[in-house]
Automatic annotation (TrEMBL):
Residues 1-67 form the HMA domain. GO terms for molecular function: metal ion binding. SUPFAM superfamilies: HMA, heavy metal-associated domain. PROSITE patterns: HMA_2. It comes from Sphingobacterium hungaricum. This is HMA domain-containing protein.
């Protein structure tokens, strides 16, 4: 299992509600969370064979930017 972190624009509960179905549908992600208290709004994902580029692209399609740290 690997863990990856991303700086994002996911900054509130409504944003989290919007990304939840998308991230939950990704079979490579077993666990995820967003630290909205952090100024960089850090998204942490855990799972197997997570494709960072694919995740960034998926978030972009629903209106959020993400940059892997």
């Amino acid at each position: 299992m690997s863990t990856k972190q991303f700086k994002t624009t996911i900054n509130c509960d409504a944003c989290i509600a919007k990304v939840t179905p998308v991230l939950n549908a990704d079979e490579t992600i077993t666990k995820w969370s967003v630290d909205t208290q952090n100024p960089d709004k850090i998204l942490t994902v855990e799972g197997e064979s997570i494709d960072s580029d694919d995740l960034v692209h998926t978030l972009k399609k629903i209106g959020y930017s993400a940059v892997e740290l």
